[in-house]
Write a sequence for this structure.
């Protein structure tokens, strides 16, 4: 019997250590309930897309003489990107100009003859039919000259197209076709080394240009959140958007919503939104995945506590409130919006009350506590990266039901 009691002593000691008596102060971290503004954010996954994305294709066929851009570097609208051998098109222009000069000379001669024939007709020295035929010849040559002028303009345009220029400003991609290849209006003709794949197949652009200042970010939200967003947009209110890196450690840029898609995806129940960012620091890159935070509302004078103070159990959401004697009591609360490490309380708490933020799993109704540190309550609007341990997506810790 004595041996059995001795064997049970360590187990009892561990149990007493895990569940101390009500008079044994339990060290905890606590904070004071405060009233302040609480921004309401929507978190989503977004994709960066260029404001404009252009495939630069040749507009005439010929030998690609030179590449005049640096891969991955900014280019400006109108900047020379590549050149095609202009000699065949220069010859065509000269031929068109020569034909125009020839037909213009014939027109001048026909007009001179027409003037002389009309004088003779007045003197009744020539048949009227001859004058009529001359007038038709002058009209025919005038049409030929007009067609020649169009041919000159077309040949001049073809010659200008041998200089491939940037249609807009942006970042040039890697070159797709090397100098020395024959190119057509659908890309390279035949083989080429190519900068990416080793060959340059048809329908391959010379280069692509992505406009990234400004840049766009698209992301999806639940259809239940759409009415509030549309209401704000109809009121001409700005909807601020933040783009964070994949680890939510760094704020990449801030922008605003510019468009909402015209239909909801029936398979996911979501709708796409488009936001725009200045991207002055070039922190956003096309096809980059980012964490998006959309501010849709701000609760004024909300009762706010750290999310770590809220536990979930059988009675629902609850907190441990510390009274003036440093004893805790279980208090059921109704939560509202959450912002990072903070949650707004609709009911159950008053401003100035103290609640436990760390050490909840060791507490029982009526336990005596010793506050060893104050939880630093900062402004919820501050973009601080949340640090949650053992928490669900709402940031509320899940504990066993509080003892009664």
């Amino acid at each position: 019997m004595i041996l059995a009691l001795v064997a049970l002593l360590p187990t009892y000691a561990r149990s007493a250590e895990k569940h101390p008596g009500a008079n044994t102060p339990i060290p905890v971290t606590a904070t004071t309930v405060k009233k302040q503004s609480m921004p309401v954010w929507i978190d989503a996954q977004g994709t960066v897309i260029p404001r404009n994305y252009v495939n630069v294709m040749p507009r005439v066929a010929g030998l690609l003489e030179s590449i005049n851009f640096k891969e991955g570097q900014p280019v400006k609208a109108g900047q020379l990107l590549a050149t095609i051998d202009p000699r065949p098109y220069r010859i065509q222009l000269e031929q068109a100009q020569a034909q125009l000069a020839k037909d213009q000379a014939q027109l001048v001669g026909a007009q001179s003859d027409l003037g002389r024939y009309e004088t003779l007709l007045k003197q009744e020295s020539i048949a009227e039919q001859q004058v009529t035929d001359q007038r038709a010849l002058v009209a025919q040559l005038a049409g030929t000259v007009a067609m020649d002028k169009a041919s000159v303009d077309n040949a001049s345009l073809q010659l200008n197209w041998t200089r491939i220029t940037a249609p807009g400003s942006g970042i040039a991609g890697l070159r797709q076709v090397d100098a020395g290849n024959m190119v057509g209006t659908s890309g390279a003709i035949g083989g080429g080394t190519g900068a990416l794949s080793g060959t340059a197949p048809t329908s391959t652009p010379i280069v692509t240009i992505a406009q990234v200042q400004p840049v766009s970010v698209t992301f999806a939200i639940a259809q239940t959140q759409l009415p509030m967003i549309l209401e704000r947009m109809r009121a001409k209110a700005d909807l601020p958007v933040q783009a964070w890196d994949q680890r939510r450690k760094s704020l990449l840029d801030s922008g605003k919503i510019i468009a909402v898609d015209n239909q909801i995806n029936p398979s996911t129940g979501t709708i796409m939104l488009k936001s725009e960012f200045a991207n002055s620091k070039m922190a956003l890159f096309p096809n980059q995945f980012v964490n998006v935070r959309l501010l849709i509302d701000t609760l004024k004078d909300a009762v706010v506590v750290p999310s770590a103070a809220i536990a979930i159990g059988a009675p629902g959401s609850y907190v441990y409130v510390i009274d003036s004697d440093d004893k805790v009591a279980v208090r059921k609360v109704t939560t509202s919006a959450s912002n990072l490490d903070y949650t707004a309380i609709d009911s159950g708490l008053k401003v100035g009350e103290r609640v436990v933020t760390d050490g909840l799993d060791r507490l029982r109704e009526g336990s005596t506590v010793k506050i060893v540190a104050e939880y630093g309550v900062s402004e919820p609007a501050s973009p601080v990266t949340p640090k949650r341990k053992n928490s669900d997506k709402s940031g509320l810790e899940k504990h066993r039901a509080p003892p009664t």
In short: The CA atoms of residues 36 and 379 lie 8 Å apart.
